[in-house]
Amino acid sequence: MPDLRNFNTFAGNTLDRSGNIRKNTDWISSQVKHPNAKFLPMLNLMAPIQTKDNSFCIKYLNFNHISDYKISINNLIFLGLKDEEPYFAFDISDIDINNEKLFNGIIFQEVRKAAMCLSNEDSSILAQARSMINWKLNNNFCPRCGNSTKSFHGGHVEICSDINCNNEIFPRTDPVVIMLVFNKGNCVVGRQSNFPKNFFSVLAGFVEPGESIESAVNREVFEEIAIKVKNIVYHSSQPWPYPSSLMIGCIAEAENTNIVIDEEEIVEAKWVERELILSALKKAKLSKGDPLEKTIVDNSEKLLLPPPIAIAHHLLKYWAENPRFFL
Length: 327
What we know:
This protein is an alpha+beta fold. It has 2 domains: 5-138, no CATH class; 174-325, Nucleoside Triphosphate Pyrophosphohydrolase (Alpha-Beta Complex). Helices cover 22% and strands 27% of the residues. It contains 7 helices and 15 strands. The strands form 4 sheets. Strands 10, 11, 12, 13, 14 and 15 form a 6-stranded mixed β-sheet that branches. Strands 1-5-4 form a 3-stranded mixed β-sheet, with helices on both faces. A 3-stranded antiparallel β-sheet has the order 3-2-6. β7 (149-152) and β8 (157-160) form a beta hairpin. α6 (274-286) packs across α7 (311-321). The mean pLDDT is 91.
């Protein structure tokens, strides 16, 4: 199997997260003042993108920039080190960027859309930043007692300010199984109510507490289309920063083929032959827009599939291009 990390978008983060040393407050303070420190400003969870040498890149700020805005260390999130240079992210949603010359020529884009024109490494850093900032914005108060929280460990722990409570809150990641179900030369694709016409993907669902990956695959497939599966194999994973999921890609063989959909989960599901999947994947690879934006979808196509940004694309691609593995 090829190096999956290289083609699953958001899965190419090479930053050294320095989990042990980031607990040291003095070390974090020294990294903030590092002459080559990079600071990633996120506006309403959108990323700063600029054009450079006819390509797109992330716009980072330096220490002098954040000093002008009097950004507190408590509001910074340490992302990691690359070549001994520290990377931080912070929220600027309270700043009126229209009055700031610093942001001239910068476009703030949704991370998913920005990922379509950035390297996988840059996209992966944005995914980490988006998930962490979203978590921080939603944990300014202790869920146990209601008092305010303070950031520690470079922004990776929020601790209740009440010493009698001292509750620690850590970033959460929600596991999701996403699976391609096949039977010989056909596979199942489904469509949710928010999908454009003729746009389909593979099945997916959250892993529940106390549930294994295999059990979640079995349960989700049966709940959504009333099909039992066997021979479940792991394919790859993808961090998905909406808000902070880990997509666990699997492939499973169907024991029966009669589809009965759960209309609360999906609005349509069907078996599709390998040749049509291959044809639709080629067109999806050429897509430059977000397929969930209904205004840009070509409804004349019989089958529209997710673009390469989605792990669903690669599950379909791996199955369709390797028939010898799935007889």
